[in-house]
């Protein structure tokens, strides 16, 4: 019986925004993924991991080149685990944490084992959680502890017109938080916090909304095929574009265009 769902994967460039009813660990061995939890954002890399407790809303967008271990810990399985206290402590709050060289080597070694022996995912997952607990249980670095609901954000002036112009000029491109932060001479982490304060949105969510607002204008005022519209605003295919459009405007683009006739 498997208590966990552990998988090795590549997180794509598609923007994802959701929450779920289980704890989740994100641990990369290569590449990077921009990820935010309730507005607090960092970049998950081989040197930086993330623990996401159940029900916390989060957004992410990978670079399409990463290799990432994603571990889901269903709450229903916790009572059957011998390490339940350790798991509870690990997921007591959202946390971005430093991945030591020793922990990175372990993750890199286990990546192949996960792929070759999926039937051993519970044993491998327990080993990973135990290793992270041993690395972190005495850690008291406030910068690594995230409690977004406690109100920690700082404020700083942002040049939103410059940011909007950059987004509009690169709608079809891969827009990263690092490039937006550089426009304001801020680190990605500081920029993320300031941006959320200024707009009430995360940078990833803001870019997604602006893409879709431009897309709606094209749907309503041009004869471009929906596949062309999707490509022009940075979506990899028409299906993902239509789903995002419907979530944003509560109507699919085909129906909105049809209503004009």
Automatic annotation (TrEMBL):
Name used for this protein in its record: HTH araC/xylS-type domain-containing protein
PANTHER family hit by this protein: HTH-TYPE TRANSCRIPTIONAL ACTIVATOR RHAS-RELATED, TRANSCRIPTIONAL ACTIVATOR FEAR
UniProt entry keywords in alphabetical sequence: DNA-binding, Transcription, Transcription regulation
Pfam families, alphabetized: HTH_18
Species the sequence originates in: Litchfieldella qijiaojingensis
Domain HTH araC/xylS-type: 161-259
SMART domains found in the cross-reference section: HTH_ARAC
